[in-house]
UniProtKB/TrEMBL annotation:
Coiled coil: none annotated. Residues 9-244, 255-497 form the ABC transporter domain. The keyword Repeat applies. CDD domains: ABC_Carb_Monos_I, ABC_Carb_Monos_II. GO terms for molecular function: ATP binding; ATP hydrolysis activity. Keywords: ATP-binding, Nucleotide-binding, Repeat, Transport. It holds the Pfam family ABC_tran. PROSITE patterns: ABC_TRANSPORTER_1, ABC_TRANSPORTER_2. The keyword Repeat applies. This is Sugar ABC transporter ATP-binding protein. The lineage of its organism: Bacteria, Bacillati, Actinomycetota, Actinomycetes, Micrococcales.
């Protein structure tokens, strides 16, 4: 019945260019009330650009938009919103110096008249109504929010407008399993209430759990649209990358060498009595739920946070890093979780960003000359298939996933003693993911010690020789690859586990 009506929203023949780059060419997308339409494609395929056109952020060069069959034009974002469309941005802009309540209602339709106290009350009610209490609090300052919480604030911004069409641009890339479950419940509820939903994600499993229809883009062109029940992972991968990919990567472990990193009862305000070892040639995974302290532990290791008690050794020598530059000098490379904020220089070129670590650190260590290293950085940019018109393109103009790839290229090219990777494949497409696994494997084979944080359990399981599971800032357990299953890791990651174990 629903499907015979005009779609809630349709875009037809959409074309959009940025100078020499054709981001979209004759693309069609229709979104129906009460349905979830997944939008898939490799990094740079044009997904975010299409959503930005729906949101009125970009004007198409050609094509037409209709709502309920009627033509519409969105000359500006607020016109799109007045028509009941909301886009959940891939990289939410959070105002750091105001609280969650104000961040939610910033620019909301008709919110200007409220005092900040009234806003806080309204925000708390809305947060509870949509099931996000316990995840965010109306009074928290924007600057204190984790990536997952920032994403939830961005979602709340849309919900308070009660939109008829909501587009999610990779909403789960910074969320842990708990938050993903909350988000999925929310999306199903919106769908049941008749909202038309577009959903961008690189995670196959999510697509099959959520979507009614899948639309695939490749290089700015529409490859096809399929009912989710009539397609499978293999077909979608083929549609996205234009060829088949091997099954999930599984690393063949090598005999590990001497310990490169040793932590003995390391504590500070973020982590509590952490002991762990990473040997040369070993890939060690760190699993845990959001808030377990995994990123904080990585930042402690690289000198972002000071060690208050306990000892840390690198190559057997006690170290006391005062800043990340100390750890870089000791041969530690670190690709942080919030790559855009913490690692990229958006106003500089792809080449400068990719070569940064190489030029600064490796040459200082005296291994190779700068020109050679630049060449190496270029090679990783190629291997990860960074989609960019040229090496001199500003990084800020690349798609979200391609920005991620540039930072990773930088650290993978650096080939340090110890490589610390926090969520290395977040936001990265299927083709580049398997390439990243292969590069990590090769680095380990060359004797690099690798410590990887990942929220994707299949990734931790496929990649790691050994896995530490964190909970509440502590190591809740260590699991050898032979014994590692998703269930085992999850049960260790749950906060109740330790109490049970102690009782
Ligand atoms: N403002 C801009 N200026 C120049 N080029 C741009 C701009 N915005 C997007 N592009 C280019 O348009 C293409 C499509 O980018 P888009 O962000 O839509 O990709 P995407 O499918 O969302 O990828 P990802 O999965 O990495 O987020 C890319 O080649 C990108 O570099
Ligand atoms: Mg995008």
């Amino acid at each position: 019945m629903m499907t015979t009506q005009a779609p809630a929203f349709a875009a037809t023949g959409i074309t959009k260019t940025f100078g020499p780059v054709t981001a979209l060419s004759e693309v069609d997308l229709s979104l129906r009330a009460g349905q979830v339409t997944a939008l898939m494609g490799e990094n740079g395929a044009g997904k975010s650009t299409l959503l930005k056109i729906l949101g009125g952020d970009y004007q198409p060069d050609g094509g037409a938009l209709t709502m309920g069959g009627e033509p519409v034009t969105f000359a500006e974002p607020h016109i799109s919103r007045q028509h009941g469309l909301r886009i959940i941005a891939q990289e939410p802009e959070i105002i750091p110096h105001v609280d969650v309540a104000e961040n939610i209602f910033v620019g909301a339709l008709g919110a200007g008249a409220f005092s900040s106290r009234a806003l806080r009350t309204r925000a708390s009610e809305a947060i509870a109504e949509w099931g996000f209490d316990g995840v965010i609090d109306a009074s928290t300052l924007g600057s204190a929010l984790s990536p997952a919480q920032r994403q939830v604030v961005e979602i709340m911004r849309a919900l308070v407008d009660r939109p008829a069409v909501i587009c999610f641009d990779e909403p789960t890339s910074s969320l842990g399993d708990d938050e993903v479950a909350i988000l999925f419940r929310l999306i199903r509820r919106l769908r049941d209430e008749g909202v038309a939903i577009a959903y961008v994600s690189h995670r196959m499993a999510e697509i099959f759990r959520l979507a009614d229809t899948v639309t695939v883009l490749r290089d700015g062109r529409l490859v096809g649209t399929r009912p989710a029940s009539e397609t499978d992972e293999e077909e979608l991968v083929r549609m996205m990358v234009g060829r088949s990919l091997d099954a999930f990567f599984t690393r063949e472990p090598v005999l590990p060498g001497d310990p490169v990193l040793e932590l003995d009862a390391v504590s500070n305000e973020h982590v509590d009595g952490v002991s762990l070892t990473v040997r040369a040639g070993e890939v060690v995974g760190v699993a845990g739920l959001v808030g377990a302290g995994r990123s904080e532990l990585m930042k402690t290791i690289v000198g972002d946070f000071a060690v208050r008690s306990g000892t840390m050794r690198v190559d057997g020598r006690v170290v006391d890093f005062r800043s990340p530059s100390d750890s870089i000098r000791a041969g530690i490379g670190f690709a942080p979780e919030e790559r855009k904020a913490e690692a990229l220089v958006l106003q500089r070129s792809v080449k400068d960003n990719a070569a940064l670590a190489v030029l600064r650190s490796i040459t200082r260590l005296g291994f190779v000359d700068a020109a050679k290293e630049r060449e190496l950085a270029q090679r990783y940019v190629d291997r990860l298939k960074v989609k960019t018109p040229s090496l001199s393109q500003l990084v800020g103009k690349l798609s979200g996933g391609n920005q991620q790839k540039v930072v990773l290229a930088r650290w993978l090219a650096m080939s340090p003693r110890l490589l610390v990777l926090d969520e290395p494949t977040r936001g990265i497409d299927v083709g580049a993911k398997s390439e990243i696994y292969t590069i990590i494997d090769e680095l380990a084979r060359d004797g690099v010690a690798v410590l990887v944080v990942s929220s994707e359990l299949p990734e931790v399981l496929g990649l790691s020789d050994r896995i530490y599971v964190m909970c509440d800032g502590r190591i809740a357990g260590e699991v050898a690859r032979e014994d590692a299953t998703e269930e085992r890791l999850l049960s260790l990651a749950m906060p109740h586990h330790r109490q049970e174990a102690n009782s």
